What we know:
Order of helices and strands: HHHHHHHHHHHHHHHHH
CATH topology of the domain at 108-209: Four Helix Bundle (Hemerythrin (Met), subunit A)
CATH class of the domain at 108-209: Mainly Alpha
Structural class: mainly alpha
Strand content: under 5%
Distance between the termini: 145 Å
Shape: elongated
Amino acid sequence: MPPQQELRPHEPRHQEPRPAEPRTAEPRAAEPRAAEPRTAEPRAAEPRSAEPRPGGALPGEPRAGEPRTGPGPQEQPAEQSQEQPQDASPDASREPSQDAAPPPPRPQGRGADTRALTQVLFGQLKNLEPGTSEHFRVRGALIEANLPLVRYAAARFRSRNEPMEDVVQVGTIGLINAIDRFDPERGVQFPTFAMPTVVGEIKRYFRDNVRTVHVPRRLHELWVQVNAATEDLTTLHGRTPTTPEIAERLRISEDEVLSCIEAGRSYHATSLEAAQEGDGMPGLLDRLGYEDPELAGVEHRDLVRHLLVQLPEREQRILLLRYYNNLTQSQISAELGVSQMHVSRLLARSFARLRSANRIEA
C-alpha cells in the first residue's frame, strides 16, 4: 500500500482538540465518595470551590455551576444541633423512669420474706402479754405483713359486683381472727391456716349482707330513698306509712314504690335451715320433700274401696269383719251363723275376685 494511505488515520487524531469540558460534564456527584462522612468535617479551603478551575475540580468538591450534593460546613452544625436533642431525649426520658420505678422484687423472694417476718413476729407475740401496747404493735405488724393474703382471697370474689375495698375489709376481720387463734408450735404455715378463715369470713358477708338477686341501679337508689321516707313518715304519723303516702313524699308513682319494696326483699335471703320464728317448727329444708307414710295407705284404701263394691254384700261383710274389725274366722262364723270352713272358702273366693278385678283395672 502507498505510504500516504497509512498516514491518513493518524492525522485526524493529532488534529482533534481534547477539551476538558466533556470531562467536567460527567456527573461526578454520583460517585460514592461524595456521600462519605468527610463532608461533615469543616474544611478551611471550602470557599475555593466556588472558583472555576480550568483543569476540573478536586475529588469531593463541587464544580462550578454544579449543584451541591451534600450539606455545607455552615449547614452541618445546624443539623447536628437538631439531631442531638433527638438522640438525647430518649436517654433523658429513660433515666427518670428507671429512677422513679425500680424493678419490683421477685414474688418468690417477697413471699419468703413475708413468711420469715411472720414467724419472727409470732415468736415475739407469744412472749408478750395480751392487752399491752407492745402486744398491739406486734399484732398490727402481723396484720400489715399478711394483707396481701387478704387481697388474694378477695380477688376470687371480683365477679360479685361488690366494692373490693369492702371485701378486703371483711377479709381483714378473718385475718385478725386467724392471728388470734394461730399456734406456731403446731408446725403449720400461717397462710395455710389463715386462708380458710379469711375466705369463710368473706362468704359469710356475701351470704348475710349482699343481695342474692341483681337489682337495677335505679331501683337500688330508689330503695334507699323509700326506706328513708318510710322512717320519716313513721316518726311523723306514729304508724307505718301507706304506699300512696310514700309515693307522694318522693314524687314517684305507686308502682315504682312497690317495685322498690320488692327489690329490697332480695337483699336478705331466708335460709332453708333456719327455724321458723314463733311456731317452733323445724326449718323449711326439713319440711320440704317430707314423706308422709299415711299417703301410701290412702292410695291403697281407695283401691280396695273401688274393688269391694264389685263383690257381693255377704263377701264384703266377711272381709270387713276379718281385716277391719280383726275378728278370727271362728268369730266370723259365729257372727254369720255359718261354719268356719265356709267362712274360709268365702274369703278365698273374695280374694280371687279382687285379684281378677285388679288385673282388669290395671
